[in-house]
Amino acid sequence: MVRKNKWVLVTGGSRGIGACIVTTLAGAGYDVIFTCHDSQKEALRLVDEVSHDNSRCQYYRCDVSDAEQVKKLCKHLITEYGAPYAIINNAGITLDNLLINTRSEDWHRIIATNLDAQFYFSQQLLPAMLSTGSGCIIGISSVAGIRGNIGQTAYSASKAAQTGFTRSLAREVGRFNIRVNSIAPGIIDTAMLKLLPPKALTRLVSQVALGKPGCTEDIAAMVEFLLSDRARYITGQTLVIDGGLSI
Q1: pLDDT tens digit string along 118-170?
Q2: pLDDT tens across 103-119, in order?
Q3: Does residue 205 fall inside a structural domain?
Q4: What digits encode the pLDDT tens for the residues 201-212?
Q5: Is residue 203 part of a domain?
Q6: HEC string for 105-127
Q7: Catalytic annotation, pick one of 85, 120, 155, 233
Q8: Does residue 155 carry a catalytic annotation?
Q9: CATH number for the domain harbouring residue 38
Q10: In a domain, 127, yes or no
């Protein structure tokens, strides 16, 4: 990748919300690097789809819950491309179960993927960003971190923790003109949503004030906005995009 534009990193960018963020930011003229873990076919297809003359795209395989893998990748990225303009911490998993049935290994896996990874990438890339005097960090949280869901104690805890992370880090780096925000999506129409039984999906959507799921473009558009100069005075915030699910 010959760096002509600002480059941004999207973790977990091969499918779902992450893939839409990659596509949207590439279309907006950013050079986009994203990580994937197991979805290499989807990653290759996405790179082919969004790379063009005005914007370049590349992916790296990385287990974002592994501190050493993240450290090695970040060192390579800074050496190869310089300081990123933005980090979009999107990678996440959910292993739904009632708390009394949740295995400790599942709890730790969720926390490591959803929360620890955000710490790893931010800590490794921030020094380079600080030296540029500008930049953005965005965490893709969830409305589950605000209202809670049955069977998602671990997932909700990991997403709620992102709010505190966002607010504290925003205070730390604001004087360097780096903004830190998070986005809390509600029910978004992805492949994961389609796995729900029809009755369960209908019951879930009935709780949404607008009466329908959101789409991945709704989240990607907010990411693009937060990276732009139009959002230059927004930091430390968790922006809820849930169609009124949490009200």
Answers
A1: 999 999 999 999 999 999 999 999 999 998 888 899 999 999 999 999 999 99
A2: 999 999 999 999 999 99
A3: no
A4: 888 899 999 999
A5: no
A6: HHHHHHHHHHHHHHHHHHHHHHH
A7: 155
A8: yes
A9: 3.40.50.720
A10: yes
